[in-house]
Design a protein that fits this description.
Elements: H1 5-8, H2 12-19, E1 23-26, E2 33-43, E3 71-76, E4 80-87, E5 94-105, H3 114-121, E6 137-140, E7 150-153, E8 170-173
Antiparallel strand pairs: 1-2, 1-6, 2-5, 2-8, 3-4, 4-5, 7-8
Length: 190
C-alpha cells in the first residue's frame, strides 16, 4: 500500500524511523525498481544547522518548505543526487534523506549511500518536487513486517553543523548488510 500524505505530515524523526523497512518504488523505466529502505537521516527544520533549510528559503530549498510527501532531490559535489522526502506541515523546512536501500527487484548497482542509491534507482534532479503519491516514484508499506531493531547514530558528513553534528538523527536497521556505515559508538540502540 502506497504511503498517504498524512504519513509524511508528522514529526520528522518519527517519519524517519517509520520509513525503515518500507519499499521505495521507481516505475517508468522499463522494469520496476524496488528496494527496502534500511538507512535514513532526519533533518528536522530550519533550526537544525545541518539542514539545507537552515539558510532559509532558496531556489534549492523551496521544495523542503512545501507540502509534505514530495521529493526533495539535490546534487552534491556536482555529481551525486540525493533523495529526501519532505515532512511536517508546509513552511517547516524538514525532510528525511534516504541513505541506503536493500535491493529487492530491478536494481543493478550498489545502493549503500545516498548518491549510489539515486544512481541505481535512476533518480536525478528532474524528480525534485515530485509528489510521492503518484505512480513514477513512491514509498509503500509492504505490510506484515516485524518491528525492526533500529540503531540511532550521528548523521554523516555534517561536521560543520556544530552541536547538531553529534545528534543521533541517523537511523538504520541493525545488522542489515546494505547499511552504508555502521556506528562504532555504544549509543547504538534507538
Amino acid at each position: 500500500m502506497k504511503l498517504a500524505r498524512d504519513f509524511y505530515d508528522r514529526d520528522t524523526e518519527t517519519v524517519a524511523r517509520e520509513l525503515l523497512g518500507m519499499h521505495l518504488v521507481r516505475r517508468g523505466t522499463g522494469a520496476e525498481r524496488r528496494g527496502r529502505i534500511v538507512e535514513v537521516e532526519a533533518y528536522v527544520g530550519a533550526h537544525d544547522l545541518a539542514s539545507h533549510s537552515s539558510k532559509g528559503v532558496t531556489a534549492r530549498t523551496r521544495v523542503m518548505y512545501g507540502p509534505p510527501g514530495h521529493a526533495y532531490v539535490y546534487l552534491i559535489y556536482g555529481i551525486h543526487h540525493c533523495l529526501n522526502v519532505v515532512t511536517e506541515p508546509e513552511g517547516h523546512g524538514a525532510a528525511v534523506l534516504l541513505r541506503a536501500l536493500e535491493p529487492l527487484s530491478g536494481i543493478a548497482g550498489n545502493t549503500r549511500g545516498p548518491g549510489l542509491l539515486c544512481r541505481a534507482m535512476g533518480i536525478d534532479r528532474s524528480f525534485d518536487g515530485l509528489d510521492l503519491s503518484g505512480d513514477l516514484l513512491f514509498i509503500e508499506d509492504p505490510g506484515g513486517r516485524d518491528a525492526p531493531e533500529i540503531v540511532a547514530a550521528p548523521r554523516i558528513g555534517v561536521d560543520y553543523a556544530g552541536e547538531w553534528a553529534q545528534r543521533p538523527l541517523r537511523f538504520y536497521l541493525r545488522d542489515n548488510a546494505w547499511v552504508s556505515r555502521r556506528d562504532r559508538s555504544n549509543r547504538g540502540r534507538g
